[in-house]
Amino acid sequence: MFRNFHTLKGNTGLILSYGEEPNLRYIHEITHSAETVLQKARDSGTGLTGRQVEILQELVDRLDDLFLAFSEGKTENAEDVFELLEELGTVSGKGEELKRGEGLPADLSALLNVASQYIPLFRELCSKGNINEEEEDFFRRSLLTLHKLTKELGFKELNEKVKELQSAFGNVDFKEFCESLEELTNDLHNLVEENARETTKKEEKEGKKGFDASRYVTKSNYLKIEEGVVRELMDIVGELSVFKEWIYLFAGKLGKVYGVPEAEKELKDNIHRFRSLMESLQRTVLGMRMIPVSTLFERFPKLVRDLSRTLGKRVKLTVEGGETKLDKVIVEKIAEPMIHLIRNAIDHGIETPEERSALSKPVEGHITIKAYQEGGSVVIEISDDGRGIDVNKIKAKALEKGLYTAEELNKMSEEEILQIIFQPGFSTKNRATELSGRGVGMDVVMSTVKEFGGEVSVSTQIGLGTTLRLVLPLTLAIRKILLVRIGDVTFGVPAESVGEVLKIKRNDMKSLKGLRVVYHRDRILELDFVSERLGVKSSANGTITLLIDNMLSKGVVVDEVLSTIDTVVKPLPDVLTTSEDISGITILGDGSIVYVLEVLK
Known about the structure:
Helix content is 50%, strand content 19%. By secondary structure, it is α+β, with helices and mostly antiparallel strands. It folds into five domains: 2-100, no CATH class; 108-206, no CATH class; 227-291; 293-473, Heat Shock Protein 90, CATH 3.30.565.10; 479-597, CATH 2.40.50.180. It has a six-stranded mixed β-sheet. Strands 10-14-15-13-12-11 form a six-stranded mixed β-sheet, with no helix packed on it. Helix 15 packs antiparallel against helix 20 (442-451).
């Protein structure tokens, strides 16, 4: 970190030596102050205080704003940084100088860089004998730069020589000017050489002797691969998975159809090794798509600081499990939903310092974001220690909006009532704020996570806080598919969306407000006869099978569950999509094509 601030300070100092730029002035002062604090902390061994870390984080945010303004040719008003710098304890009045526009303290490295560039140019132009108008301008600008740097660094003798040359240029013969300039050039050359000798001595003192070629060679254990190449590899792995299933089916035919049981046994024995190699290859290629969730989490400290400042709240953020890896596509897709959840936690959940103090809570609220792997899924939890969610308020608002009857709400569990907040347009706030409470967002969170077969759940305690739990598949490349039969047709259903498989008798079905329902574990499940929408005739008679999503209180009716497979699901082209229930296709080992249904959403 110290080196980064030092590099930024040196680079901006060099650019400023050529001319003034407001954004770069601020950047130079910020980096200079940050460098000083870090050096003191390093030299003393005391480290940084918590407040110093907070200020440095805020200053880094301001650097982002200043660099953006500089790149867009705008001027950022960064007067607020001086209060932070004064609190940091490193400004000592320099902020006031900056406000008056009196220039920044120069860095010796800036003078050395400028001198190294000017020396050969001065000598080349003087050797010509005559110079044009553009070259005259160069002399004037370069002498002005040298005048500023030598003055600010306290090189009085050099500065006097520069001033004399500025006065002489254009007023004396060019040859005479160049003779005087050569004296300055030699002085600058000596300054550069002296600095180089000092650097060499220092390196030798530290034991860095001789030429070490390894210092100039950087070894890396990483190789950059285009995303398209990884996708192609995944397609190949998917095809191999299908081929593996075909071989297994063919092995069965060898014994049953062709009457060669010995060949069937030998082939099946070798298939187990092939399957092991395939799984190893699949894990390796899947790993190429995985990135640590820290690439997403690192955006949140600034978000929390900005929102806390806007809302007048004090909030501490703790992040755990950033090393947990997840499919790159999923990481990118959940960014916006997670921002909304954090925004809600600060706006709705965390109380103001005054409210927390009155409740005997620490005045600083606490948000924790935790990621960890659980089986074949990654769990991300966003927790706060705020006021919690009032279930009675949700019930009252749901009743007011006509979403449920009082009887239905009374039969719901607390978990089911909390799921109501994910319905489109639902909000318990009567007045919208700039940040939230507009009745949008939570439904988008749910739909985004559901899009790739994930789940969202909520747990809360009044006065203690709320936790939102996102369960996400490790990858979208290979999916676990539940093969089901409806009539004579085999379909696939994403296994992660099925919470439970239940068999019931047709006589157990009831009618409620024109809907076919069944009572299961003190809940009402709406029955979805997807066969009717797909135009497939069901062959089930007395008993039917339900695929249940515990969050949706819904059961999809199928005739039979066949098996579970790991496979690649290909999206169906729009021109071939005839039903919203069909999301893609996959190919089985025998070559048959299976439609994948997204009916539990």
